[in-house]
Amino acid sequence: MELGPYDPSGAGFVQRCFERLCKAFSAALGNAHENGELRRSVDPHEEASFFTAAVLGLFVMLRAKGPATFIESAVRVAIEHLEALRLRATMR
Questions:
Q1: How far is CA 89 from the centre of its chain?
Q2: What pLDDT score does 3 carry?
Q3: What are the extents of the domains in the chain?
Q4: Per-residue pLDDT reduced to its tens digit, 12-63
Q5: Beta bridge partners of 86
Q6: Alpha carbons 5 and 23: distance in angstroms, whole number
């Protein structure tokens, strides 16, 4: 049974890790948004939450020794999602 979220010594660490990762994604996406590299409709904070969840899910799959094809597909879809956020050069 996983006790991490309920263990006082680990719960704070895990929460800080989530927050730090989300802040990093938010900063990177916010910079790209301000530089006109992302579509105007993109919400950097919402996308940061998505990418944080995606990366954490990948960590879980890797730790659980999930099938490589499953993990590779998930990575490919996340990259495709990121590419879809980009403002195309012809649209600028």
A1: 24
A2: 61
A3: 4-91
A4: 888 899 999 999 999 999 999 999 999 999 999 999 999 999 999 999 999 9
A5: 38
A6: 20
Residue with tokens 């950097």: 44
Looking up tokens 């012809």 gives 90
What is the token pair recorded at 83? 């590419």
Higher pLDDT pick, 61 / 87: 61
b/e burial code for range 26-50 (CB count within 10 A of at least 16 → b): beebbebbeeeebeeebebeebbeb
Measured distance CA(59)–CA(62) in Å, rounded? 5
AA letter at 36? G
Q: What CA dihedral angle connects 38, 41, 44 and 48, to 10 degrees?
A: -100
CATH topology of domain 4-91: Tetracycline Repressor; domain 2 (1.10.357)
Q: Pull the structure tokens for residue 86.
A: 């980009």
Which 3 state secondary structure label does DSSP give 7? coil
Coil, helix or strand at residue 38: strand
